[in-house]
Structures are given as C-alpha cells and as structure tokens.
Specification:
The strands form two sheets. Strands 1-8-7-4-2-3 form a six-stranded mixed beta sheet. It is globular, with a radius of gyration of 24 Å. It has a domain of 124 residues: Double Stranded RNA Binding Domain. Helix 2 runs parallel beside helix 3. The chain is of the alpha/beta class.
Length: 189
Amino acid sequence: MKKLTLLTVALFLSSVTPAVAQDVRYDFDKDKDFSKYKTYKWVPIKGADLPDELTQKALTSAIDTELAAKGMTKTDSDNADVLVGYQTALGQEKEYTSYNTGWGYGPGWGGGWYGYGGGMSSTTTYGSTSTVYVGQLDVSMYDPAAKQLVWRGVATKTLDPKAKPEKKQKNITKAVAKLLKKYPPEVKK
C-alpha cells in the first residue's frame, strides 16, 4: 500500500508540473567566417518591441557577458565587425492542467490495468486553467560591411513580466546562455 501511495504521489506531481522549459532556436549564414567577428556594437532594431528599462538592462548585460566569454569586445565605434540588436515579444496563452485519480485497490488496481480489475475502484478528474506568460527574445547579428543578417537566435518562455526580479534575471541569464551556447557556429565545409 505504501508503494501505491508513493506511485500515486509521483504520478500526480509529474502530471501537474507545467511545461515551461525554454525553447531555443538559431540560424546563421553558412558562408560567413564567424572567427573574423571580434567586435560588436549594439544597435536598435527599427520598430522592435522592447521591454521596460530594467529588463533591457538585464538582457544587454547577459548578452554582453556571453559574448565576452566568446572573446568578443563591445565597442561604440562605427567600425564594429558585427552589429547586435534584439527585440522581445510578450504574450499570453491558456494552460489547462488535469489530474485523474483513477486509482483504487484490489486486484487489477481498478479498471483492468492488469488482471480482471476487481476490487474497489473510483476515479475523479480535477482540472484548472491558468494564464502562462510567454516571453520571446530575438537576438540578431548583422554584418555591416555586407549589410546583411548573419546570425539570428530566438529563445521562448524567457521573459515573464509578472516574475519576481530574481526569477526574471535567472530566466534571462539561462536563456541567453542557452541561446549563445553554440556561437560562433561551426561551419562545415
């Protein structure tokens, strides 16, 4: 009976844990030699949606830290090797979580998981709806000499305007690290 209780609790916890893992995607120009990009300059993206100033500061700081770890240097010079800009998107989606108590006792654990399903069995389904804020970060890098986009990465479920400051910073740092993990990309020839 103790094992059954532990199994029930484990299944319950796994079924109600929301799927909020950050999704990261990126693309790049396979014809570019990214080892030549040593300096970068921040540029605004025309018409881009931006978050509040504190979140902007957290984003640029996290990106600066990751790019510095990759050996790049930030500059204000117009001669930067690459231009970096970002934009954000905030939205909402509804999430429905349900839990079915389809457990009983006796042979077959109720309803025929195995055996004949005898014994006492009862099921109850509980459900709840909640709003999940989806925040997307889009980072773009442009080659100013060629005047073209050379790298673009998107991290979803990164920005939550309702999150506490510590949680917001943790999400941003984690998302930017994941986003730039494989930068510069290895170009296979």
